[in-house]
Amino acid sequence: MHAPADAANIHAYEYEDGPSPDMDNIAETWPIRKEDNYVEEILWERYKRLRTLWKNAQPKLTTKGVLETPAEHETQLLEESRRLGKESRQATHRQNKYNHRKTVLEHIVIMKSEAPDDDDLQSWKWLQ
After folding, report:
1. Cβ atoms of residues 43 and 32 within 8 Å
2. How far apart are CA 46 and CA 32, in angstroms?
3. What is the pTM of this model?
4. How many Å apart are CA 76 and CA 70, to the nearest integer?
5. Which of 31, 58, 79, 128 has the largest count of CB atoms under 10 Å?
């Protein structure tokens, strides 16, 4: 029989500095229906991401061997957030640029195929 996790443990993990769930026995200690593999897989991935975020959000040791101060830790988290945002914007920009070029190429091929005297149609089709 499935016994759900203690509500206090879940609240401590979600909203406080409580310990993360045991990832090896997550189906037995946290509220998951064992017979539904799809939901279990989604929750497994979610808790894995949460655990990674939680671990990355912990203060790190400085070069002097002491923990970061709250101000240093906040600065480090903000820099990481800015870096991830920049990477996301760059990837989106590249994808949009590719899609725009592809659309322009398709329109050029259509335009060239309608004109009977264009001898470079095959070159444009090759680029497609």
Report:
1. yes
2. 12
3. 0.48
4. 10
5. 31
